[in-house]
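sorry for the late reply, my laptop died twice this morning and i had to redo everyting from scratch. anyway the thing you sent over, i finally got around to it. pasting the sequence first so we're on the same page, its 279 residues, then the predicted structure underneath. double check i copied it right bc i was rushing
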Amino acid sequence: MLQLVDFVVRNRFFLVFVLLEVLSVWLIVRSNSYWGATYFNTSNYYVAKTLAFSNSAKEYTRLDEVNADLAKENARLNALVTKLNQTNSADAPAGYVPDSAFAARFTYTVAKVVDNETNKTNNVLTIDKGTADGIQPGMGVISATGVVGKVRFCSENFSLVTSILHSQFMVSSKLVRSNEIGYAKWPGKDPNFIDMVDVSKYTKVYKGDSAVTSDQNSVFPPGIMVGKVESIAVHPNQTFYNIILRLSTDFRNLSYVYVVQNQQLGEQENLKARTIERK
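ok and here's the structure:
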C-alpha cells in the first residue's frame, strides 16, 4: 500500500495531466456531435476487431474437437451414401432389388492416425483404435478422400494398417468412364502416384478419369476414390495399359481415417472355405 502511495506522489503531475487529457476528450465528445460520432465509430471498430481476434483464438484452440466432430459426421454420411449406392446401383439390371442387409453391410469407425510412413517401400500407419473398439485384422481403412489401406495387426487400443503405399498391397479398382476393372498397386516410389495394372489396351482409357474401388471387393465399399488417371502408355508387344494414377489421398497430411467393417465378410469367407474343401 505504501508503495502505491509513493508511486502516486512521485508521479502526481503526470497523473493529473493524463486525467485532464481524458476529461478534455470526454468534454469534446459530449459537446460536439461530429467528434462524438467519430469517437463512437472508431471505438466500435476496434472493439469489433478485438472481439473477432478473441473469437478466432478460441476457435483455433477448439480445432481438434471440431475435426473430431466432423470426422464422426463423415462416418455417418459414408454409411448412408454406401447404402444408397448399393440400393440404387447405376449399373444394376432392371428389376434387381438388393437385400437390405446387403446394402447396409458396411459400417464405419472413426480413428486418428498416430504414426504414418510414406518414404519406405513397404509403408504402414498406426491408428488409435483396436480390439476394444471392435477393430479386427482384415478391415479396410479409408479417408475422407479415398482408400488408405487394410488393418494388419491389432492390440487392445491400437491397430497397425498396411498402407496402399506398400509393395504387397493391391486393391481392385474400376475406371469410371470405361467401367474397366484392374488393380491399383504401388511401385514403391512417389507417394503421390500408384500404378493401375491389368487394364486391357483394347478399351478406351481417358486421362483425368477417376479410378474407384470396384464391386469385386469385399473389404472396401464400391465407389471409394483411389485416384485419377495421370498418364497412359502401352507397349506394342503388351496387351495391357501402363496407367499411372495420382492418388486422391494425401498421405503426408493424413489425420483422421475410417475403419470399414463388412458385416457379411465372415459369411462370404466361410462359403469360400466350404467350396475349397469340397474341391
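The first helix runs from residue 2 to 10.
thats about all i looked at so far, will dig more tmrw
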